[in-house]
């Protein structure tokens, strides 16, 4: 089992001053949105020093930055009125995340419509990767709900990975494993790390969240570490097995995030 010293634990925070947010939590990494997570308007950087200032200050402070793309990005869909704006928004967030020196941009897998062949969604992911200038790693995240989702079920994740394997930039596409999403999506946490690695050969980031809901519920509702249906020890086992940096997307603020991190460190 990996030790707490070897695994960086961070949290999702407000983007206005992510360095201060990291410091007050005693963390060396943070994740945030650049703008409205539900809007197509595009990224905005609220840090007083702008993109260049944030990049320089984060490097000086030794703090790793991760950016989460808007939830509405869905490059898999067959609906052109969503897919084309999603591709444009993805490129804008890649550019903005690269400008601040982020370690990765996390993107949800998206979904196709009920009547669609999932293969079309897989191929749309390939097209999106080919069409995007990946200036930093794009980390595709597993999602919790929806029978038509691209990354809820392992076989769908395998379909996405097979489709993008031939892309010139395939090595810039990584994986973000969300524990709440895996549990709620019906993927046993006892084997999920091995199962994902068998498909992707990499886990670049872990979103370590407990779940308010039962296994295979399809519900995406996060809980604090040990306060949900997964439990702290099972979460620590996933984190240790993955051996990747961790971001907490758990409820609350500074105190809750510190408590969640302390619980995890105590078990690792």
Largest sheet: 8 strands, parallel, barrel
Strand content: 5-15%
Please count the beta strands (DSSP E, at least 2 residues each).
Answer: 10
pLDDT below 50 for ≥5 consecutive residues: which ranges? none
CATH architecture: Alpha-Beta Barrel
List keywords for this structure.
eight-stranded parallel β-barrel; 268 residues; 10 strands; two-stranded antiparallel ribbon; alpha/beta; 9 helices; 14% strand; TIM Barrel
Describe this structure in words.
This protein is α/β, with parallel strands linked by helices and 268 residues long. The chain has one domain (9-267): TIM Barrel (Alpha-Beta Barrel), CATH 3.20.20. Helix content is 39%, strand content 14%. The protein contains nine helices and ten strands. The chain has helices spanning 18-25, 50-61, 80-99, 118-131, 154-164, 179-184, 192-200, 232-242, 254-267, and strands at residues 9-12, 29-32, 64-68, 104-108, 138-141, 173-178, 205-207, 210-211, 222-223, 246-248. Strand 4 (104-108), helix 4 (118-131) and strand 5 (138-141) form a beta-alpha-beta unit. Helix 4 (118-131) crosses helix 5 (154-164). The longest helix is centred in the middle third of the chain and has 20 residues, at 80-99. The chain is globular, with a radius of gyration of 17 Å. The mean pLDDT is 96.
């Amino acid at each position: 089992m990996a030790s707490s010293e070897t695994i960086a634990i961070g949290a999702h925070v407000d983007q206005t001053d992510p360095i201060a947010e990291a410091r007050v939590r005693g963390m060396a990494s943070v994740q945030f949105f650049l703008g409205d997570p539900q809007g197509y308007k595009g990224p905005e950087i609220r840090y007083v020093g702008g993109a260049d200032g944030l990049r320089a200050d984060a490097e000086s402070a030794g703090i790793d930055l991760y950016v989460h793309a808007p939830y509405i990005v869905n490059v898999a869909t067959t609906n052109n009125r969503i897919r084309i704006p999603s591709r444009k928004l993805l490129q804008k967030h890649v550019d903005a995340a690269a400008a601040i020196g982020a370690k990765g941009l996390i993107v949800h897998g998206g979904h196709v419509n009920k009547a669609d062949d999932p293969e079309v969604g897989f191929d749309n992911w390939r097209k999106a990767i080919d069409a995007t200038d990946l200036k930093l790693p794009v980390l595709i995240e597993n999602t919790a709900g929806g029978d038509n989702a691209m990354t809820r079920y392992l076989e769908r994740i395998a379909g996405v990975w097979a489709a993008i394997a031939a892309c010139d930039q395939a090595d810039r596409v990584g994986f973000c494993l969300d524990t709440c999403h895996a549990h709620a999506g019906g993927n046993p946490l006892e084997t999920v790390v091995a199962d994902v690695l068998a498909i992707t050969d990499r886990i670049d980031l872990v979103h370590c969240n407990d779940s308010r809901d039962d296994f295979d519920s399809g519900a995406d509702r996060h809980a604090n570490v040990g306060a949900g249906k997964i439990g702290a020890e099972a979460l620590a086992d996933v984190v240790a097995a993955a051996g990747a940096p961790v971001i907490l997307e758990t409820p609350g603020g500074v105190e809750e995030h510190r408590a969640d991190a302390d619980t995890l460190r105590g078990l690792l």
